[in-house]
Amino acid sequence: MTDTSRDLLRIEGLHARPTPEEGAAPGPDILNGLNLSVGRGEVHAIMGPNGSGKSTLANTLLGNPSYEVTGGRIVYSGDDVTDWPTDVRAKSGMFLAFQYPQEIQGVSVIQFLRQALSARKGIDLSVLELRLATMDWMKRLGMDSSFVDRYLNEGFSGGEKKRNEIMQMAILEPELAILDETDSGLDIDALRVVATGIREIRKDRPELGILLITHYQRLLDELQPDFVHIMVAGRIVASGGMELAERLERDGYEAFRGAN
Question: Is 248 part of a structural domain of the chain?
Fold first, then answer.
């Protein structure tokens, strides 16, 4: 019998697809019976070719209404959250770092963080208090102190957007962080800064569970995940350690396309 007492996230036979527009016929499932468990304090990496369903999985886990679950369930911290709305999942401690963070005109980073922290933990810090709380993390992530006064993601470089996501993760203190291709578009120096930030957060919060979605082994080399999973056609077809990522680097995804 499998011990699920340390499971932070358990995905059971998950099927999901894009939500059809009103009056339109639904399309095929993108996730096709996906199973995965993430324990507290564990780092799991998911790798897969384009179109394998990685970003669909990330969005489905956070309840993005653009996707609908057609089968299976999502269990988080012992609760079936399959039908929970996005804001309730976020308040409960689920966090998604977007592959393409959106710009929000007229809302500064510090204002966004203040509202998000109030919603997540019921903590109403003043702008000054929050500014002081963010200074250490901005320093760790190589961000200028004026960064928090800029409008959210407006005019940000790719590296600034990703470092901002990591700072949000540090301030909001989630229980589960889903990082959707956080390394996308980063040069090696920016990648190392982001990876250092993630490691620092884990030092502060060793019970944090991380689901890391990526195309590239270079981020795995920096973070050394506990488990690596290969995703093809909406399912996990192989699981292992870093040796699996090394095999993928050597043999490519074709070696896994016929796996069950």
Answer: yes
Exposure letters 182-212 (e unless 16+ CB within 10 A, then b)? bbeebeeebbebbbbbbebbbeeeeebbbbb
Position 29 scores a pLDDT of 96
CATH code, domain with 23: 3.40.50.300
Q: Are 45 and 226 in contact (CB under 8 A)?
A: no
Expressed as residue numbers, the domain containing 54 is 7-256
Which phi and psi angles does 64 have, rounded to 5°? -60, 120
pTM for the full model? 0.89
- How many domains in the chain? 1
Please give the pLDDT value at position 103: 67
Q: Which residues contact 50 (CB under 8 A, 6 or more apart)?
A: none
- Name residues of the chain where pLDDT drops below 50: 1-3
* Chain-centre distance for alpha carbon 236: 17
90 domain-assigned: yes
Q: Work out the percent of the chain whose per-residue pLDDT is above 70.
A: 96
Calculate ∠ Cα 185-186-191, nearest 5°: 150
Q: What radius of gyration, in Å, describes the C-alpha atoms of the chain?
A: 18
User: What is the DSSP code (8-state) at residue 102?
Assistant: P
Please check whether residue 1 lies inside any domain of the structure: no
DSSP result, 171-236: HH--SEEEEESTTTT--HHHHHHHHHHHHHHHHH-TT-EEEEEES-HHHHHHH--SEEEEEETTEE
Q: Is residue 62 part of a domain?
A: yes
Which residue, among 30, 45, 34, has the nearest Cα to 211 in the 3D structure? 45
